[in-house]
Design a protein that fits this description.
By secondary structure, the protein is mainly α. It contains four helices and two strands, in the order ββαααα. The protein is rod-shaped. It starts with a strand and ends with a helix.
């Protein structure tokens, strides 16, 4: 263990730390001293414990602000990846919808050409329509989910 004397707001403190951590402790004490200097400690109206508490809170506030800034910088990376994945899924859904619309048009054309209008043809058209509607609904849900994220 090493003993280091640090100075905060003109007051000396004896602090113990692990061997090799002296420079880190001195650096941390300098940061705390900078915050303490912002307080009105020159008149000694602030008790030592309050001065240390307030200085620590100022440092914690600054650290929290920096963490928020870092999170804001890192945040755009995830939505960009999500957006690329969404766009790929949307293109696949668009292709599926187009194929289903083509199939429906084909069945309707055949119906008009042959004049066949039986239950099986109607059921087939309804099934194709329902499949297309499900694909469109899924696509809309994905868009809404991404918009709310």
């Amino acid at each position: 263990m090493s003993q280091v004397t640090i100075e905060i707001a003109g007051r000396s403190f004896e602090v113990v730390c692990q061997e090799g951590e002296e420079e880190f402790l001195i650096s941390a004490a300098a940061m705390l001293d900078t915050e303490a200097q912002k307080l009105d400690v020159s008149t000694n109206r602030i008790p030592e414990s309050r001065m240390l508490l307030m200085s620590g809170l100022l440092l914690a506030d600054r650290t929290a602000a920096m963490e928020e800034q870092l999170a804001a910088i890192e945040a755009p990376a995830a939505p960009a990846a999500d957006l690329a994945a969404y766009e790929a899924r949307q293109r696949a859904a668009d292709i599926e919808v187009a194929a289903l619309q083509g199939r429906i048009a084909e069945l309707e054309q055949r119906l008009h050409e042959t004049g066949e209008f039986n239950e099986r043809t109607v059921e087939t058209l309804q099934d194709e329509r329902d499949t297309a509607l499900r694909a469109i609904k899924t696509m809309v849900e994905r868009v809404e989910a991404l918009a709310s994220a």
